[in-house]
Fold these 3 entries.
Entry 1:
Amino acid sequence: MEVILIQDVANLGYKNDIVKVKDGYGRNYLIPRKLAVIANESAKKQLAENLKQQAHKLAKLKDDAVVLASKLEAAHLTIAAKASEGGKIFGSITNAQLSEALEALGISIDRKLITVEPVKELGEGKATARLHKEVKAEIHFRVVAEKEAQNDNAAQQQENEEQA
């Protein structure tokens, strides 16, 4: 069965894609949840017309995503986490923590767009942000112990006071 996606569906496709799915998945999951419609001739013609009208809007969205991707790749994140003496952190670094750290730098991004492998130790890490259908960005970050982060902040405050 061919369907036209109305919204982005993880591991299947993006909005306005025509995808082939099993009949049961389409009828029982995608269509009732308003995630897709059946791809008949009239729906395909309507999709083509809508895509023509939205072409310039989509180009602008892609350009904005490229600019945001360059900001993300240039950003240097430091995330403080509670850690043991051996360098293991309690819990793990999540996409929500990365989103908050980016927000502190003035870069607003939804946490659902960030994919990060579980980070369980202090050190360097990287995550991927899916900003657009064709644009992905890597986010590099460093995980430090909370004690180190407090010492770094105190040192920076002293330097700022000395400069003033």
Note: The chain has four helices and nine strands.
Entry 2:
Amino acid sequence: MNFLGIDTSGKYLSVIAFREGADPVFCFRPDCAVQHSVDLMDAIGETLSRALLNVRECDFFAVVTGPGSFTGIRIGISTVKGLCAACGKPALCVTSFDALAYAEGKKQVLALVDAGHGMYYACGYGEDKRVKIPPVFCSEERAARMAAEGFCPLSFARTSLCGGGADVCGGFFRAVHEGGRDVIPARELTAVYLRKSSAEEGRK
């Protein structure tokens, strides 16, 4: 199994290339919030080259479909759809929550994505990495109550509920590698949005 994975859902940029039998190769750029469209293709080329992997040798292309940055998510999905179309390969959807859950060991995890203005996207996972609290857009107070139910709050970025610093690349890789092979046709890729964008809200 060979694959390329792309995560443009946050302020960072993460690209993973994996060739069966070899170690995964990561490209991680921590502060790429407004540069995803500029930096992504170079990052893909660099990562594939280091992995000694040709894009057509990939069995599928994985992408983080959200929640997170509305623009970043669209860039990632569009890129993977293009790669799938060019190479005739399927896609694999991974959520930001999945990547966070797999960044931790066997603990119950409350995966948190900062949505700004004291709000969060949250999802609870059991030790088996199955969803126990469905994804929700919620206040900090509600997220804190969920964490108090025995879940370890975990985020890629520092928040008032946790220190951040989750293993972005490692979690994404394990979510793809260990989390199943439920590939789909690229045309079925859709973004995971738990609320309307600021632009949509502003049109009310």
Note: Residues 70-87 form the longest helix (18 residues).
Entry 3:
Amino acid sequence: MASQLETVSTLGRKLSLSVALAEVERDVAQRLRNIARTAKMPGFRPGKVPMRMIEQSYGAQVQSEVLGDAVSKAFNDAVTEHSLRVAGQPSIERQEGTPEGELGFSASFEVYPEIVLGDFAALAVERYTCEVGEAEVDKTIDILRKQRAPWVAAQRPAADGDRITVDFKGTLDGTPFDGGTAEGFQVVLGQGRMLPDFEAGLRGASAGDTPVFPVAFPADYGAAELAGKTAQFETRVALVEAQQLPELDAAFATSLGVPDGSVEKLRADVRANLEREVAQRLRARTKASVMQVLPAVADFELPAALVDAESATLGERARADLKQRGVDIDRMPPIPPDTFKEQATGRVRLGLLVGELVRARALQAKPDQLRKQVEEFAQSYENPGELIRHYFSDRNRLAEVEAIVVEQNVVDWVLANAKVSDKALPFDELMAG
């Protein structure tokens, strides 16, 4: 019987299918004969088990497998016949009333929406820029100097930026509390890693001083017995240290991989790396701007099956992230099904829209673009050629590169067809984001 297609909603479809019972029985018999050739059972030599016993042991399983394969083939043939793009997995049910000698089934499923792209000229997109000059190179080199600066004892009161080695004992209403005592504890003032009152109590202290001061714990502090309370701390400052920045000279340049110790070569290398990093961050910012406004160009219904699948994927990622952080996820309550629905809806909508734009405007990745992107990745490696060969020999890695190139093609196309305004970002803001 030919398949019959029914439209049950905007995206919902229902196919009526049938498979020939004689074909199913024939395939079942053939598979059972194949099993019988090697089957082993107590009291029988391999391949000599009576067919009746083979049917009793394997018949139900084989019949289920054959029927499943037959229905799957019938469904795929019908999908091709009706030129359908199925979204998600179909729901298959037995259907009565089919002609004698046939088994009837119905398949309910959703199809992908027809997306009509609107006017891209109406989209307002921000394209981000950032200048890399001598001042930015100087800032980066100063960071490198601080990263390699040794700590030396400072014979003066402690200030922000100094490292203090301190012994302390905290009490709450005269009673010590867990985690409130330490010896040889090191803290860099001004980094905000300790409570504000604790740093304030040590600021201005010198080695050998014994400051005593109160520390107020915030109401949302992690330890419930301390939240919203004020403790008293007795301390002894063992050491105050300041960083001694290395000179920007040949020795410093050599330590950073410049063979001849040329400071100018070091600055050129820093600038090149900085420009590459800035370009990557600007592309990411601009891409986010494009993807944020892109959904406004088309309105269409989403297949619920795709949203549900994406929600489940996001939920699994969240659980995996919590597990990696040390959380016992087996003792956690189940994540409510709708927790990630809004996020999943946005991701599915954007994914379908990008896919349609790629198809409609032929924005697929070209070989020369893949090569250029891989070469860009390889620039920061010691042996670029080896990394390039690795990428082109690994299909999964190359697929990741292809996805990046396609997304950039979409961004470039939108920027060429939308209303674009350039926005200059301060260097510090871009690098901090």
Note: DSSP finds twelve helices and eleven strands in the chain.
